[in-house]
Every structure is written in structure tokens, then in C-alpha cells.
Write a structure and sequence with these properties.
12 helices; Rossmann fold; 2 domains; 8-stranded mixed sheet; binds NADPH dihydro-nicotinamide-adenine-dinucleotide phosphate; single chain; N-(1-d-carboxylethyl)-l-norvaline Dehydrogenase, domain 2; RedAm-like_C; NAD(P)-bd_dom_sf; alpha/beta; about 290 residues
Length: about 290
Amino acid sequence: PRTPLTLLGAGAMGTALGRAWLAAGHPLTVWNRTPGRTGTLASEGAAVAGSAAEAVAASRLVVVCLLDDASVGEALAAAELTGRDLVNLTTGTPGEARERAAWAKTRGARFLDGGIMAVPPMIGAPGAYVLYSGDRGLFEEHEDVLAAPAGTEYVGADPGLAALHDVALLSGMYGMFAGITHAFALVRGEDVAPKEFAALLVPWLTAMAGMAHGAAERLASGDLTTGVVSHLAMQVAGSGTLLRTAEEQGVSTELLTPFLDLMRRRLADGHGDEDTTGLVGLLHARP
Ligand code: NDP
């Protein structure tokens, strides 16, 4: 028999998760603040609870997927959590996760935080995964259940680490989105088909993403000059072409200049033989 579990939250993500657990044969109890949203899961076999407290009472394993950390506190205010295994898949900051973990402990529950690296249509399909941090015993005991909707990646006992990894990955993504946006702006209005340009941009960015491995090696060794294929002095010298091309094309440099300015600062500090890995420290020292 499959482990029964409770799910709080039948929004877009909660519903996708719940469907995957039902499909895998887990008895599911669901609660949602607005009752109308539990229809899909009910029709697929979930038991619907009338209150969050009632839902929590139904299973030892309780998964929460609500809007934000404040809604988690609100929903669980009146629930008896003693002896419960609480898995929080609500997106939040590392600090919120740490506070929520301490809060859960005082309420007598084990706590695991999770960051979902997928959108709802990806749940139940290969490629989707969830970052987990917090109580390792909880994670190991329930890993088979947690693995039904998405892959699992445990990143540490500090409950803030899942959220930190989640936000760090998302932040890296936004840097890439900024680059994609600027690149399309440069070619816009010219005799360049967006689809043909994308066919060049995607493999280029995919290849360049691999540079993160070299950066990681340098950060781990502490020597930021080894294995550098394109050093900062050269990159700063070349950046003038990027700015002049933007000007020629009538494109704002506002997405580009923050990064170029950091490169210049690091060069001015005497680090022309590094690559951009040195900017990590620069950014961290002056937030
Ligand atoms: P939805 O907006 O679809 O659902 C939000 C859910 O939170 C609903 O169940 C809503 O209930 C509930 N809720 C909001 N406020 C409260 C409250 N004060 N008390 C109780 N319940 C409340 O969002 P998603 O399902 O998409 O997202 C849920 C979580 O999953 C979020 O933290 C999100 O960041 C995360 N996530 C979502 C992804 C996505 O692509 N959708 C991707 C990765 C993570 P009600 O129906 O009553 O409004």
C-alpha cells in the first residue's frame, strides 16, 4: 500500500502535484481555501477536507503548496502539528524557510523545505525536480513519495538551502533572459528572421553556460587566473564594440552596462589576468 498524504493548496502547482500522487496510487487528502478549486483532484480520487486542520489530522505526511510563506502560517495556525512531517513546497526566501523550520519545531513537527524547479505542466514528466533542505530523516523516509511528481535533490540540513539554491538558479536564469532580450533588440528591424537568429543563439548560450564549470573550479581553488581563456583586460577592451554596436542599432545599453561596469572596476583594481569570476567577490563585498 502506498503512503497516504495530505496536500494543502490546490492552485495550479498543488493540483499538478496532487494528480501525480493520485496517479502513483497514493491516498490523498486535499484542502484549499477556496473550495471550488479541489474539483479536479476530487474527481481523480482525492478526499476533500473541510478545513486545513482537518486535512492535517488525516495524514502524518503533509505537503504545503500555497502562495507564499505568510499564507502557510495563516493556513496552519489552527492545525495540530505534533508528530507531523511537514514538507513546504511554497516558494520563499532562505530566511523565511529557516524561520518556518524553527516554527514547525516548536509545534512538534519535522520540517523539510522544497523549491520546485518546474512549471505545472512539467510535473510528472522527466526533467522536473524539487530541491529539498532540512530534516534529512524526513527526506529519506518519504523520498519515494516525494519522487512521484518530480525528481528529488537534497541539498543540505540547513532548511534555507533549498530556497537559496532555487533563487540562485532563477537569478542566473534572469541574467540569461537579459542577454536574450538585448540580443533580439540588436537584430530587430534588420533583415534577420527571429527564428533563424534563435537557432544560432540557443546553441551559443548552451555552449557558453558550460563556462560556469571553469568559474566553479577557480572559485574552489581560490586562484582566479588559472584556466582563463579570455581574460578581463581583453574582455573590457572588447566591450567598447558591444556598446558602439548598441548605439548604432538604437538599442539601450541598460541591460549590458551594469555587468560591463563591474568588469571595468575589477580591471581597475588590478585583476586584468582573471576572467569574470572575480566579480563574484566584488558583488558580494558591495551589495
Ligand atoms: P496559485 O496562485 O495557482 O495558487 C495559490 C494557492 O495558494 C491557492 O491554493 C490559494 O488558495 C492559496 N492561498 C493564497 N493565499 C492563501 C492564504 N492566505 N491562505 C490559504 N491559502 C492561500 O499558485 P501556484 O499553485 O502556481 O503556486 C503555489 C506555490 O508553488 C507558490 O509558492 C509558487 O511560487 C510555487 N511554484 C509555482 C510554479 C508555477 O509555475 N506555477 C513554479 C514553481 C513554484 P485560493 O484558491 O483560495 O486562492
